[in-house]
Amino acid sequence: MTDDRPNYLDNTEDFRTLIDQATKGEKSTVPVLRDLMTTTPGLATHIGDVFSHVEQKALGRISKQNLLQQEAYISSLNSLEQGLQTDPHQVEYALIRQIRMDLLLLSQAEERLIDYPTEANNTLVNSAHKRALASLKTLHMIQRVLPPVQINIAENQINIS
């Protein structure tokens, strides 16, 4: 199928036809699409990856029509992502924030179970409890693996473990 690639990339009309057929589920386009995705760097990312799709959908649901809030969330997520790539202690920070959220959700689930004692709410409490414990276990494991932070200020040395 490599022979078809220049035709699709050079001729926008053929490329649009291919895209239209693919979005309508035309199975004959699959070999050409696979070839294009593997031979054209960045095409798959430009069209969209699954993580970005889910992230955009979740942000849309959380922030609804509030673009200010959505952009603030995106900025916060970008900062966290950048920190996770450069500083191993950012993993610890992210887990602590996750634990806070897990404990909050567990508290809400327990309150709901008290107010409405149903099997579904009991299952919700059990799931929230398992998630909180898993986050705590992961944090403990990370804290054992990460080296302690050492800060030297003038003549004083501070060890943070």
Please write out the topology.
Elements: H1 5-10, H2 12-23, H3 30-39, H4 43-47, H5 50-63, H6 67-86, H7 89-115, H8 119-145, E1 149-153, E2 156-160
Antiparallel strand pairs: 1-2
Helix pairs in contact: 5-6, 6-7, 7-8
Beta-strand content: 5-15%
Number of domains in the coordinates? 3
Radius of gyration: 24 Å
The CATH level-2 architecture of the largest domain is identified as Up-down Bundle
Q: Going across the biggest sheet, name each strand in turn.
A: 1-2
Oligomer: single chain
Biggest beta sheet attributes: 2 strands, antiparallel
Terminal residue distance: 57 Å
Residues in helix, %: over 70%
CATH C-level class of the largest domain is Mainly Alpha
Find the count of extended strands (DSSP E, 2+ residues): 2
Mean of residue pLDDT values: 85
Structure report:
With 161 residues, this protein is mainly α. It folds into three domains: 2-47, no CATH class; 49-85, no CATH class; 87-150, Methane Monooxygenase Hydroxylase, Chain G, domain 1, CATH 1.20.58. The chain is 75% helix and 6% strand. Strands 1-2 form a two-stranded antiparallel ribbon. A hairpin with a 2-residue loop joins strand 1 (149-153) and strand 2. Helix 5 (50-63) packs across helix 6. The longest helix has 27 residues, at 89-115. The radius of gyration is 24 Å and the shape is extended.
